[in-house]
Write a structure and sequence with these properties.
alpha+beta, TATA-Binding Protein, eight-stranded antiparallel beta sheet, 3 helices, 8 strands, about 25% strand, globular, disordered C terminus
Length: about 150
């Protein structure tokens, strides 16, 4: 098993408050599952994502996205309107997919249940920069004084 995440729909106005710590007992920021029309549009968007392949299943839309450099991201959309992901690749792939899905539904967040945090693109990128899974810029590996 990789790193479990999900894409969730937020209550109006909370997108601007991201990142949110949801590990406490406060009110839920979730607006519930995606409706059927939005779920279909999100499924279409995942299916058109580069390197995505739809896997044959009976109950849910399941996609596997093979990262060009190795690793994979599994995405499944349940019939009741939830989106779950299991990343066995760099988490940058999750960020790229999230940005595409925001074009369909702007009131969404990346939920990280292991840390109890909901992210937008900016906070998730900041999280990645502190992780070993993040790609580092070339200048991080080059000693400019040695040239």
């Amino acid at each position: 098993m990789g790193y479990p995440l999900s894409i969730v729909r937020l209550k109006k106005g909370l997108v601007n408050a991201l990142p949110l710590d949801v590990s406490g007992d406060g009110p839920s920021p979730l607006a519930g599952p995606f409706d059927g029309f939005t779920r279909a549009r999100l499924s279409y968007t995942v299916g058109k994502f580069p390197f995505a392949q739809k896997l044959p299943t009976n109950v849910r839309d399941t996609y596997e996205i093979e990262a060009p450099g190795g690793g994979r991201l599994e995405v499944w959309l349940t019939p009741d309107g939830h989106i779950f992901m299991d990343s066995q690749a760099g988490l940058e792939l999750v960020l790229s997919l999230y940005i595409e899905l925001r074009n369909v539904c702007p009131d969404i967040a990346i939920e990280d249940p292991q840390r109890g945090v909901m992210h937008n693109a900016i906070s998730f990128k900041e999280f990645l920069c502190g992780e070993d899974t993040a790609e580092k810029p070339l200048k991080a590996f080059v000693d400019e004084t040695a040239a």
